[in-house]
Amino acid sequence: MCYGCGVAEDRDMADTISAAIRDAPEPPEPLDARTARREFAPRGAFLNTASYGLPPRGAHEAMLAAERDRAAGLLTTGMGDEAVRRARALFGRLVGLPPERIACGPQVSYFVGLVAASLPARATVLVADGDFTSLLFPFLARPGLVVRSVPLERIAGAVDGDVDLVAVSAVQSADGRVAAMDELIGAARAHGARVLLDATQAVGWLPVPADRVDLLVCGGYKWLMGPRGTCFLAGTAEALAELPAIGAGWYAGADVWDSIYGAPLRLAGDARRLDLSPAWQSWVGQVPALELLARVGVAAVHAHDLALANRFRAGLGLPPGDSAIVSVPVAEGTAELLAAHEVIAAVRAGRLRCAFHLSTSEQDVDRALELLSGRVTAGARRDDQPR
Ligand SMILES: Cc1ncc(COP(=O)(O)O)c(C=O)c1O
């Protein structure tokens, strides 16, 4: 591709945007969660969205089409731009924020790194024990910050006047525990601390208070069912303005295609100043997945995913929970046994982690339960104890 000579051409060629993106219904046509299951083609029972989400058929096809276009020399940068534009708008609709307050990049840790870089020396960051390292390492790697770690259940109570930022996952990757977000936001406000919420394990199935936190980061490849390589950072105008655009390249320019050569610095005036140049095929694949979520609606996805998770819990003799991720202690070799029967789950923090999303059916849950019979061991936690 010729960046220099193709500006006008690229704009013209935006006309050739793949049908999967261009022809998406606007506003979305409603779809019920059970019917949405038909959009997925797992080989067996897939209970592993907490590791990576399955693409709905349209998303998979759009990404493959983009890759075929690349092989044929027909990929256009206009196509990538349009995919990012639509993904940003769709994500905004999902969390209730305008696109001007959403940046697009590749990974959670990159955006968290910008937040870490923005903090003054000796700032105190409060985190939860055992949280995902893409949320922790950028703060730990920045010399001079004080990182205080407490159990998730005590994080709201641990906010005091010394804390500058609370950085926590809305839903824990390791075991699906849901943070007490209202309590935490209230405590942070009372003490003048900012909140950075990592919603990677939440947005897509759990309504999140995006308009009440200072910053929210969300990877696209799990519950948003995109390919690896898409991530969103949303925030208040004030919090975003304080982030240094130290990863800025041509894609962070006020007019992207007028920002490819030469000084002076001319960054976008909104959250786009934090964008990184997109992995084109990934963003093309992200759009139809976000469209499917918009069609089903977060409330319906939430009800669907929780119903499956609680069916699973009931089958194991556990009380109902509030998470689409269920983590249980199991006998050694259980994940392998499940995999041999095409039931896909993960082992995290020494426990079996099962995740339930639009790509999961009741039959999938029952199949997993059959195989798990007699293999769940007594756990240490209160919610491990069968009733
Ligand atoms: C809470 C959370 N944040 C972030 C990530 C991924 O981070 P990154 O995009 O830096 O790979 C994961 C992946 O499991 C996660 O569970």
How would you describe this structure to a colleague?
InterPro entries: Aminotrans_V_dom, PyrdxlP-dep_Trfase, PyrdxlP-dep_Trfase_major, PyrdxlP-dep_Trfase_small. Residues 152-316 form the Aminotransferase class V domain. The protein starts with 6 loop residues before the first helix and ends in a 15-residue tail after the last helix. Helix 4 runs antiparallel to helix 10, helix 6 (108-118) runs parallel beside helix 7 (133-140) and helix 11 (298-315) runs parallel beside helix 13 (362-372). It contains 13 helices and 12 strands. Strand 5 (165-169), helix 8 and strand 6 form a beta-alpha-beta unit. It has helices at residues 7-13, 19-22, 33-36, 57-71, 77-95, 108-118, 133-140, 181-191, 237-241, 280-296, 298-315, 334-340, 362-372; strands at 45-46, 102-105, 124-128, 146-150, 165-169, 194-198, 215-219, 231-235, 325-328, 343-344, 346-348, 351-355. The strands form 3 sheets. Strands 2-8-7-6-5-3-4 form a 7-stranded mixed beta sheet, sandwiched between helices. It binds pyridoxal-5'-phosphate (PLP). Pyridoxal-5'-phosphate is lined by residues 107-109, 132, 134-135, 169, 173, 198, 200-201, 219, 231.
